[in-house]
């Protein structure tokens, strides 16, 4: 299994290095400052990247439960728009544990993610695994949304509170 992960990481690195040279640097998935104000309804369309016939991918993070570490993962971009909800769905699909997100809200350059009080990472979760979940979500959002600079986690009833962590209602968990 360890050899497979090392091989997969090597292949992903090679694809990333080679794939980056195919594009001219235009980032068609980014929002302009004017669009940031109305991000909930006006997310830009994703283009095909100058006619290259390749499957568009998005890099998110998942968790290697055996090694207890974050692992980058490329997933197919099977939507016309890259939204916080799309990224969150891809992250949750690739984590073995059931995690329920009640709300995702963007205000200015800050994204708020509210977790259910009944599921991990808030309930029934070790400190290590909880940290991995929070890092996985925050890194995936920050890496893929140019208009988001800060991630704030909350519980469905307000401030984030678990047996391992307690955050204020607007306490920033991570930044770019």
Q: Could you state the order of secondary-structure elements as H and E? A: HHEEHEEHEEE
Rounded to the nearest angstrom, the distance between the terminal CA atoms is: 32 Å
Question: How many individual β-strands?
Answer: 7
What percent strand? 15-25%
SS summary, helix count: 4
Estimated structural class: alpha+beta
Give the mean pLDDT: 80
Shape: globular
Please give the share of residues in helix: 25-40%
Radius of gyration: 17 Å
Offer a quick outline of the entry:
With 176 residues, the chain is of the alpha+beta class. The protein contains four helices and seven strands; from the N terminus they run ααββαββαβββ.
Report on the architecture of this protein.
With 176 residues, this protein is an alpha+beta fold. The chain is built from 4 helices and 7 strands. The strands form 2 sheets. Strands 3, 4, 5, 6 and 7 form a 5-stranded mixed sheet that branches. The chain has a two-stranded antiparallel ribbon with strand order 1-2. Strand 4, helix 4 and strand 5 form a beta-alpha-beta unit. About 14% of the residues have low confidence.
Using brief descriptors, characterize the structure shown.
globular; about 180 residues; two-stranded antiparallel ribbon; 5-stranded mixed beta sheet; 7 strands; 4 helices; alpha+beta
